[in-house]
Write a structure and sequence with these properties.
The structure holds two protein chains of two kinds. By secondary structure, chain A is mainly alpha-helical. Helix content of chain A is 85%, strand content 0%. The longest helix of chain A has 30 residues. The mean pLDDT of chain A is 91. In chain B, 31% of the residues lie in helices and 25% in strands. Chain B has a five-stranded parallel sheet, with helices on both faces. Chain B has a four-stranded antiparallel sheet with strand order 2-1-4-5. Chain B is globular. The termini of chain B are far apart. Classes of the chains: A mainly alpha, B alpha/beta.
């Protein structure tokens, strides 16, 4: 097996998932619409007081992003599992963990990146100041890939179950909480004029940790699920 | 299409499969050599698919060992997977991709420089002109043929086919039988489960009946 063909395989899987996403545009729109709707409903529910919205805004946007990520998770392996292509991917002579990295990257580009793009608009909509919007963007850029990475492990474990949604949430949500805490408090700290380098370092550490460990864990989880 | 290692052998050593606390088969041993066919027979639910998935390294045997050239397949992993092609119950075809995209993806997952071109493969399975057609718009039989075209673009020594004749018409069945004959005469190996009476030379068939 030539090692030179591994980048080909990585690229082919990434390209395939992106092509499929483009042909299923409605699914991308689904996650994004959920994110926007949840954020937009909060001011209606808690009243339009700018001071209140400014305080809770970062938290609302992050919770909505987290739930949107959770909602989109099932799609990572579901269709591949159902049409049998997941078995084909597992039988590729290339390291499964590297292929899983391609799948998660594709998933993040499809569902995480659009959140990042509309987040500043939602920030303005909630009346957040510029510095908070900027911090929000940074935390989303660091945090949403972590959500995809952790989520992939959970989905890989539950893909064989008929009704895996509930277990998936229970498995994954506790692991999402550190990301939520550090991100939302970073935005609040930025608003209060405090240093956010500590928060960002922790988020970066989480990102690095999940990039290095999650593909291996996802691959093993998938092997267990399909066994 | 010739295969590099003529002395290859696939062996099962005292394999056991337990599913939902029921023993589907136990103490199953066999040996398969180039140009031979392992024909897996048995009633529905007798563990045919489970056995084939074990041979593909997707499922772990509950007991026993599977060896490829006398090495455990779970230790070989990469080398073994490079020489095996599996067509399962599910076609493994992405419905929203065209025939050409499906084959290109399969090729890139393995070794892109091996096997025939996508065009040749599609011609061989009588789907020429369908390269730009999404698999969704094909009939079940055409999708099955597209799945079987994977065997041509990857050029593996060991084919593992689970009910390959499902939803194929007589022309399709004849086509697959020809491909199988050619594969075997080139030193290929085949593991197949089928209800269909296969017209292959008797001496090259190793039969396993899981129902007895």
């Amino acid at each position: 097996m030539s090692t030179a063909s591994l980048p080909h395989a990585f690229q082919a899987l990434l390209k395939r998932d992106l092509t499929l996403a483009v042909r299923h545009r409605a699914e991308i729109a689904n996650t994004l619409l959920f994110f926007v709707l949840v954020t937009a409903l909060f001011p209606l529910g808690i009243g339009p007081d700018p001071a209140v919205l400014k305080t809770v805004g970062p938290g609302i946007i992050w919770v909505a992003a987290l739930l949107a990520a959770l909602l989109s998770l099932d799609a990572v392996f579901r269709s591949d599992f159902e049409d049998g292509t997941l078995e084909q991917i597992m039988m590729s002579p290339h390291p499964l963990s590297v292929l899983m990295l391609a799948k998660v990257l594709a998933h993040w580009l499809i569902t995480g990146l659009p959140l990042l793009v509309v987040a500043p608009l939602l920030g303005m909509f909630l009346g957040l100041p510029g510095i908070e919007i900027k911090t929000l963007m940074i935390t989303l850029a660091l945090g949403t890939p972590v959500l995809s990475m952790i989520g992939a492990i959970g989905v890989a474990l539950t893909v064989g179950l008929r009704r895996g949604g509930m277990i998936l949430s229970l498995l994954v949500l506790p692991l999402y909480i550190p990301v939520l805490i550090f991100s939302a408090s970073a935005v609040n700290a930025a608003g209060a004029g405090l240093s956010i380098s500590g928060h960002l370092s922790l988020l970066t550490a989480l990102l690095m940790l999940s990039i290095s460990l999650s593909p291996v864990a996802t691959a093993s989880a998938l092997r267990i699920s399909l066994n | 299409m010739t295969h590099s290692s003529p002395a290859a052998s696939l062996q099962g050593h005292a394999l056991t499969c337990i599913r939902d606390d029921r023993t589907l088969f136990s103490d199953l041993s066999f040996r398969l050599e180039p140009s031979q066919t392992l024909l897996v027979e048995g009633r529905n639910g007798s563990g045919k698919t489970s056995l084939l998935r074990m041979l593909c390294g997707i499922r772990m045997p509950d007991e026993g060992q599977i060896t490829w050239n006398d090495n455990d397949i779970f230790k070989l992993s990469t080398d073994y997977l490079a020489s095996i092609a599996y067509i399962g119950h599910k076609d493994g075809v992405k419905l929203d991709l065209t025939a050409d995209e499906n084959l290109a993806f399969v090729k890139n997952l393995g070794n892109p420089e091996h096997g025939v071109s996508n065009e040749t493969a599609l011609n061989t399975i009588f789907l020429s002109g369908y390269d730009d057609v999404p698999a969704r718009n094909m009939s079940a039989g055409q999708r099955r043929r597209l799945a079987l075209a994977r065997l041509l673009v990857t050029q593996s020594q060991l084919w593992v086919l689970d009910e390959p004749f499902t939803s194929l018409d007589t022309q399709g069945i004849e086509l697959i039988e020809n491909l199988i004959r050619k594969h075997l005469s080139n030193g290929g190996m085949l593991v197949m489960s089928s209800h269909h009476a296969v017209t292959l030379e008797k001496q090259s068939i190793v039969r396993i009946n899981l129902s007895t």
